[in-house]
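Q: Sequence in, structure out?
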Amino acid sequence: MGNMYDTAPTLFSKDEDKDNPTMHTGDYLQTYVNPTGGERFKIGKQSLHIGAKMIQDVKPPNDIYVVNKHGQKVWLSKNGKMKPTAGKLLKQDPNFGLGPSVRLTGSPLNPKLEVFSSHDMSKTEQYMSVFINSEEDLRQALEKGHLGMDPSTGKFGMSYGQLAIDPFYKRPSDIWSGVASFNRGMNKFGTMFVVPAFETAVETLIPGFQTLSQLTGLHDVMQHGVEAFNALADKQLYKGSEKYDLGLSNQVHDPRLKPYLERMKNQGQYFHGEDKSNSGLRNTLNMPESSQSDMLKKARELTGKNSKLFLAEQVNLFTETGEKLREIVGNNTTFNFMEMYSALRSANTPAKKMKVINHYTERFKTDLMPMIQKKMDEQQTLEPSEQTDKSPTSQAQPSQSPQVSAPPQQTSSWVHFNDSIINGDHPHPSPNNEIHG
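A: Exactly. Output:
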């Protein structure tokens, strides 16, 4: 009997009837065109072309899109829920069917790479989300149920696999699952029909620094579903790699990374201009960018340094503003400045310091600014007789009434904590560059 991996598939999954999928040679669920060139997974000495690439937008509501042959975004989800037409829209990605589909979620700084695997004996009716952090993670998902076989022994070994080219449709073995059944099960399993919670960049470097309340840990819930699926498929549970291999970023390019890095560089240049003696920041700005993994390393370094410098700047500006307000109001207030400074000194993490700054900035507005405004208004309503000399032989002179200092003006550098300052998101393309399906 010959080696099946020496023979090309007689039918590619992209060409088969999605409503009546068939098992392929060797009981594989999917077959791939796998042409040369393009973005490719590396698996041992072989490689596999990447199919449609689903990407999570960095702007709320963080919906999922693919990019068509014209460079336009085609939206697969709307307001956090996958569209019923997502399976058809996925085909607008020019790489559809050339290899397994992937999904990039999370932030550009901490990407989550997913593929969608199944098994002909699985009790579930869905392709399951599997997180990929290493080459071995990918091999395990691709060869689910075939780990005793060796695709590397044949020319067409990478043309067969268990990873879906279109996880929105049913898989072989008469296990049917459409959009409705996916949505029914989305709370139980990690599936294509759950739009993952978006994880912002700073959270990776400084846990708790950002304050987006919608981060719910959905990825952890999904991972439990993946592990349950793996337990059904194999007697011995494979425990995936915990740390993301930066080399994967060279295989699956994240289009969100470059704009993110440019924003971090611009911020770094600003901070470096403020403090040219900061050699650490200067060295980070000079790090190479020749590959996606280089860019990711540089973005992470810059985000960490920018975040700390941003925090230091905000603490200084907050303190200066507090002192200025204290000079203006004097003792005519019950506002406790000493308590404010004590709270700032006691805050021992970036998140706590920002919480103190934001809290007392609001107190400035509610407790102090009305008092200052009232004092200014009183000065502007002086009687005319108090402002001029009534002597007929003397020339009128400008009033010399006591001056009340104006409240400090909000400058471009005095800002409340804003995720966009740190997270490096970038503007949406113009509406005519997007397709909503």
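The chain has a mean pLDDT of 76.
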